[in-house]
Design brief:
Radius of gyration: 13 Å
Helix content: under 10%
Largest sheet: 7 strands, mixed
Order of helices and strands: EEEEEEEEEEE
Structural class: mainly beta
Low-confidence stretches: none
């Protein structure tokens, strides 16, 4: 099993980023996928989750209306579109497969002017 995130970086407040997570080693289309984040000195928290076919989506209250989770099962990829970014969104973002209890390596997102 492998989950490889990409798309992080430095962005100014109000900007946008799109994170990608490419999965391999399991039947991606059959699994719920999640994005978590961990800021310095804080616990890892759920940001968004998407059902196996992409219909069910849930979001943390702190990102509702700004972030969108989506997936392309043909490409074994889950995305996190992040708009209107705030400094408090700064964190390492992780892709997670709950049923497999498997994490990606994380990608750093820094929101700063």
């Amino acid at each position: 099993v492998q989950l490889v995130e990409s798309g992080g970086g430095l962005v100014q407040p109000g900007g946008s980023l799109r994170l990608s997570c490419v999965a391999s080693g399991f039947t991606f289309s059959g699994y719920v996928m999640s994005w978590y984040r961990q800021a310095p000195g804080k616990e890892r928290e759920l940001v968004a989750e998407i059902g196996a076919v992409g219909v069910m989506k849930t979001y943390a209250d702190s990102v509702k209306g700004r972030f969108t989770i989506s997936r392309d099962n043909a490409k074994n990829t889950v995305y996190l579109q992040m708009n209107s970014l705030k400094p408090e969104d700064t964190a390492v973002y992780y892709c997670y497969a709950p049923r497999l209890n498997f994490w990606g390596q994380g990608t750093q997102v820094t929101v700063s002017s």
